[in-house]
Design a protein that fits this description.
Length: 337
């Protein structure tokens, strides 16, 4: 009898360890960030330096760095921005898969938290004093039906493929499963196609940002002036695998007398190499419609090159709109080819 009890206890101790690799519900959600739809830096939106006025509604990448150059009749201006998700920064990617997929209030709020980023940017001012323009931004995605962890079997497929090749499951803290001797590209490519072709689904994001000019140099300035607050809400609706419809509303300089509303509609043509966007936005600062277009080319090693051309209100609204071009080089965290 005592021998039977001893064997039962030993089996109970060993069974969880043997099954944990197969039955564990714990994953790292940042293993499954796809290389699609990289949205604008919220700090650049706050500074009115986003490439286009109609913004993407897609979920942000956990980390993104942007180098840009803007050209207008007034000047040529370089700039930098950095975006990061605090949840990613502090190692919050380890989650229960069932908990992440839960539609309870707690599950929904945690998904919003994982897709919230903070952003900072800086560009030289044009007033000849050596001052700089600085911006801070906050952006979150409220509704993201294109999330591969939420709406695909990608995590299960990756786990099963690793197990099929006899590869031990990755540690919970591992954010990359591409260097384990197993080709998983077909599963990620399939997930990208599925998520981009969810016809009728709408991604909804919102943001807030503040921009200002420094008094003097960016490091030696004594304070800030011309502070402007911007709020925005944007949606991105998939019309199939190749097209998205975009809509954005921005409240500009909301806490000062110069407050204005900007609204716009756009369309995105998606390909595996580059995405093309066109827009028409109404700007309340000069009460005019402004067209714009952009191309975003996917490059190796999680980078992309974006070029845009738009019209914008002139320094004096009586002078009419001016032409503005911009080029961005962006690096971001994702599972890239």
């Amino acid at each position: 009898m005592s021998r039977r009890v001893s064997l039962s206890l030993m089996g109970a101790l060993l069974a969880p360890g043997a099954a944990s690799a197969r039955d564990s519900d714990t994953i790292n959600i940042y293993r499954y960030v796809l290389d699609v739809d990289v949205p604008e830096s919220p700090a650049l939106v706050a500074m009115d330096e986003a490439p286009l006025r109609v913004l993407l509604g897609a979920a942000p990448k956990p980390v993104m760095a942007t180098v840009l150059a803007s050209a207008s009749p007034e000047a040529f201006r370089p700039g930098l921005s950095l975006d990061v998700a605090p949840y990613f920064l502090f190692g919050g990617g380890v989650r229960s898969l069932s908990g992440y997929r839960s539609n309870s209030l707690a599950g929904r709020l945690m998904r919003v938290l994982t897709k919230t980023t903070v952003s900072a940017a800086m560009l030289p001012d044009l007033d000849g004093t050596g001052a700089w323009r600085v911006g801070l931004g906050l952006r979150t995605t409220f509704h993201d039906p294109h999330d591969p962890v939420l709406n695909s079997t990608l995590p299960e497929q990756v786990e099963e493929e690793l197990e099929r090749h006899g590869v031990p499951p990755p540690a919970d803290s591992d954010e990359d499963v591409s260097e384990r001797g197993v080709d998983l590209s077909a599963f990620f490519d399939q997930a990208e196609r599925e998520m981009r072709s969810r016809s009728g689904d709408i991604q909804i994001s919102a943001g807030w940002g503040v921009s200002a000019r420094t008094e003097g140099g960016v490091l030696t300035g004594n304070g800030l002036r011309d502070t402007r607050h911007t709020f925005w809400l944007t949606g991105q609706a998939s019309l199939g695998r190749r097209f998205d419809a975009l809509a954005t509303m921005q409240a500009l300089d909301l806490f000062r007398d110069g407050r204005a509303l900007r609204t716009g509609l756009g369309v995105q043509r998606k390909t595996s190499v580059a995405d093309f966007r066109a827009e028409l936005a109404f700007d309340g600062t000069d009460n005019r419609f402004h067209p714009g277009a952009a191309i975003d080319v996917t490059l190796p090693v999680c980078t992309s090159a974006l070029a845009s051309l738009t019209t914008a209100p002139g320094a004096d609204t009586d002078d009419g709109p001016v032409l503005r071009g911009q080029v961005q080089l962006r690096w971001y965290f994702a599972r890239c080819r």
